[in-house]
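Lab notebook, page 48
Experiment: co-folding of the full assembly
Goal: obtain a model of how the components sit together before planning crosslinking
Operator: M.T.
Materials (sequences as entered):
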Amino acid sequence: DQQVKQNSPSLSVQEGRISILNCDYTNSMFDYFLWYKKYPAEGPTFLISISSIKDKNEDGRFTVFLNKSAKHLSLHIVPSQPGDSAVYFCAASNAGNNRKLIWGLGTSLAVNP
Amino acid sequence: KAGVTQTPRYLIKTRGQQVTLSCSPISGHRSVSWYQQTPGQGLQFLFEYFSETQRNKGNFPGRFSGRQFSNSRSEMNVSTLELGDSALYLCASNTGSQGTDTQYFGPGTRLTVL
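Observation: model returned without errors.
Model output:
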């Protein structure tokens, strides 16, 4: 049973527009969430994280929003660039075991020039 | 600072064989975690080692084992290989001192079982 779900396997956006990637979770014990980006033939690269005590975290073009009541988080990329084309993974962990990350299946983002 | 390295990058084995994968963490990192990535299951946590001790374990059979050496390098072993073990095996390292430490991933070892 997937505790972290990324329901959109793929997403296509135009360069310069906003990309919104979504993630839902079922375990209410999760209190730390991360987004990783993965290019082919490379390992995942950390992008941005958010703690459950916050509802928003911003880093340059990347913003993560957390809605605890809905058990939902989203990653916004503005503006999207062709180099952002990659697979994006959402991951979560809980206070009792932060080092054990639970991952979604990923969303493949294609940013078209 | 050098990143996480994994060897070999590609491996082809046959059913019933065993395999050992190696991971060298970033210098100064004491925690190494292993993940299996398959198209249908995504990244699944195998185990984490910290200071030569297994600190966390995922839900994989006993055929999957690991160890960590005093220099923090880690190895993962899979015995009696099955076709379903074909996957990308990723290792990640972090300092291990705080639960929210960022994990840094290596490029992975692509294992194919024939």
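Interpretation: The first strand of chain B starts at residue 5 and ends at 7.
Next step: discuss with group before ordering constructs.
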